[in-house]
Amino acid sequence: MSKLSRIALVAAMLLPALAPVTTLDAQARGARLTPPSPTAVSELRDTVLVFGQDRGALLRRWTVPFSPDRAARLRAFYTDWRARLQRIDFDRLSQEGKIDYLLLDNRLRQELDQLQRDERLAGEMRPYAPFAAVVAGFEEARRRFETPDGQQAGRALADMARQIDSLTKAVRARAPQSAQIPRAERIVGLRTVEYLGDLQTQLRNWHRFSAGYDPQFTWWTADPFRRVNENLATYQRAIREVVIGQRQGEEEPIIGDPIGVAGVNADLAFEMIAYTPQELLALAEKEFAWIEAEQRKAAREMGFGDDWRAALEKVKQAFVPPGQQPAMVRDLARSAVKFITDRDLVTVPPLADEVWRMEMMPPRQQLVSPFFLGGEIIQVAYPTDSMQHDDKLMAMRGNNPHFSLATVHHELIPGHHLQGFMTQRYNAHRQAFSTPFWGEGWALWWEFLLWDHQFAPTPEDRMGMLFWRSHRAARIIFSLRFQMGQMTPQEAVDFLVNRVGHERANAEAEVRRSFNGTYSPMYQAAYMLGGLQFRALHTELVKSGRMTNKEFHDAILQGGRMPIEMVRARMLNLPLTREWKPSWRFLQDDL
């Protein structure tokens, strides 16, 4: 049996868990569209897997961040892969193969662009870390299996310790004027502190390899290595206090690292979004107008007239007592599964419903994730007895049952857990093309769809779902404006408090999570934008009668992770060329 036949057989064995394609009256439903086959195999499946394995191997080998040698090796790797793609006869590929070709080429161009950005970031940090090349040289020589010269290494470490001490004194000398340090330099300072931590880790790995094993190496390097480590810690503290403005014991200020207008436009292009940032900001304001109108309707039903803020406050007060949050999450999860299966909206394999689990989120993590996190394990944010009284109340108010109605199914089924379950079983190689516009957009789309199916039975529940909808519209605005340098983090916090109705501590955690964490620049905008893309595609395929809801949703999950314009190309079997460029205008006014 051929390899492709074996793959098709395995996929066919999985099919009983999925609903068969429904045959409907063409005249009653309009022109039918056959969903893509879940057994179709891309000719480039193994090619994509090889790329991912090769890239992972290189990243494990070249570990020093911002190293010129690492950048040169990765640039050669991505350039070589683009040349390999060019040698493939695109026109002879199937639709699945053409999609993988375009996705892989897009990924390679994105990686090359990121290397250019990293070079700029490294250049900005160089005055703070002129010794970085020494650390990189140590570790990269070790990776080449070169035997270190203990005396030379000790001398280099001693020089580095003195240089770091001088840099620390120079930073401390600026302390009287630290309030005048411009924001742009504070951004570089925060990035540099993280970079220094990475360099310290690399230095320790290098030293640990020979220390104690090679007596000559240990004799020469023990003392200067200790002084470098001590001086690095002192230097990091000086940068935090003087440049960043963070005193010992204080929370790290929310600073972020915006990518600028050019960066935003480039990232939207890589995400295959054929809109300008200005058009997307206008879209978010349009969504806000709809949300606020619906909030006033719910407020009137609750007896608050048009004062939706007073109604929202009433909803926040409906939190469950300590100890009862897990039971509430369990019940909401079960009701969501029953709701979508009763209406035949998507296939829910019984095993997916069986294996999800629940954990309580530690207090420290709630500082940056004040709400649920999910997937196969849903992490429940709720206060513990060690938290301060005011923080407890804010956490309870922000995770009340009406707010949670929209977040539990977002994290579990039909949201992230069902996503992960299915994409591990269908077109798993497309994990290489994962994007928050598909990942978060899918979970947000279900908030749209369940709203349309009257999932929220009471005005309080609708108010809870609308809170999250306004939160996602706000993310488009504050993330795009911040990344383009048009909004500060504090303005973003105030925006969430005043426009959305967030608790201030939760708003600060949201902005901190968005800008000081590991999220990509477009991640927060991707929730609603991805959801709107799925909504437009649903209008095109389901509301038109060309597919059923179950066919539509199953086909998305079976296709794997990718920018949603490629989902559309796959669903509609659109003609693709090697020179294809994104052009889909998915906003409602464009339909």
Describe this protein's structure.
The protein is an all-alpha fold and 591 residues long. The chain has 2 domains: 126-244, no CATH class; 264-590, no CATH class. 64% of the residues lie in helices and 1% in strands. It contains 24 helices and 2 strands. The protein has helices at residues 3-14, 26-29, 45-61, 68-86, 95-125, 132-143, 150-172, 183-210, 215-244, 260-270, 277-301, 308-316, 325-342, 350-355, 389-398, 401-411, 416-423, 436-452, 459-483, 489-500, 504-515, 523-541, 549-559, 564-572, and strands at 357-360, 377-380. Strands 1-2 form a two-stranded parallel sheet. Helix 11 (277-301) runs antiparallel to helix 19 (459-483), helix 18 packs across helix 22 and helix 20 (489-500) packs across helix 21. The longest helix is centred in the first third of the chain and has 31 residues, at 95-125. Mean pLDDT is 91; it is low at 1-29.
Topology:
Layout: H1 3-14, H2 26-29, H3 45-61, H4 68-86, H5 95-125, H6 132-143, H7 150-172, H8 183-210, H9 215-244, H10 260-270, H11 277-301, H12 308-316, H13 325-342, H14 350-355, E1 357-360, E2 377-380, H15 389-398, H16 401-411, H17 416-423, H18 436-452, H19 459-483, H20 489-500, H21 504-515, H22 523-541, H23 549-559, H24 564-572
Parallel strand pairs: 1-2
Helix pairs in contact: 4-5, 6-8, 7-9, 8-9, 11-12, 11-19, 12-19, 13-16, 16-18, 16-19, 18-22, 19-20, 19-22, 20-21
What attributes does this structure have?
591 residues; 2 domains; 2 strands; 1% strand; globular
